[in-house]
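User: I'm putting together notes for a lab meeting next week and I want to include a structural view of one of the chains we've been expressing. I don't have a solved structure, so I'd like a prediction I can at least talk through. The sequence is below, exactly as it appears in our construct file.
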Amino acid sequence: MAMLLLFSTVSFTVEKHFCGDVLIDVAVFSDVHKCGLELDDSQQTNVVKKSCCKDTLEIVEGQDELTVKTFDDLDVNQQQFLTAYTYSFNSLFEVLPKQIIPHNHYRPPNLIVDVQILDQVFLI
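Assistant: Thanks for the context. Below is the predicted structure for the 124-residue chain, given as structure tokens.
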């Protein structure tokens, strides 16, 4: 839900560079790469011919205002459903009683000799 909220509120622009009818470059977060056929300002005054290249911008706007609903804005049926759902969901998680382990503090005796290896008795 947080990712959906983030992507619905983000605005960005998509820049496209066309040379004639051919798409040369598309950029979302950076500048588009030009095809090199554009003329400088000093060259455009001498040339009467129109450039074949064009740039387009598509602006994708996110939401500016988000509506926040409270519990009182819901109708009675929605309030009852939400209350019943919350109660049943919380009752799924019951606290288990603490288990008593009678041999919790028992320390086994130190093993001096491994009898199974000494007698060479192995379980197969």
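A couple of points you could mention at the meeting. The two ends are 55 Å apart (CA to CA). The chain has a mean pLDDT of 82.

User: Perfect, that's what I needed.
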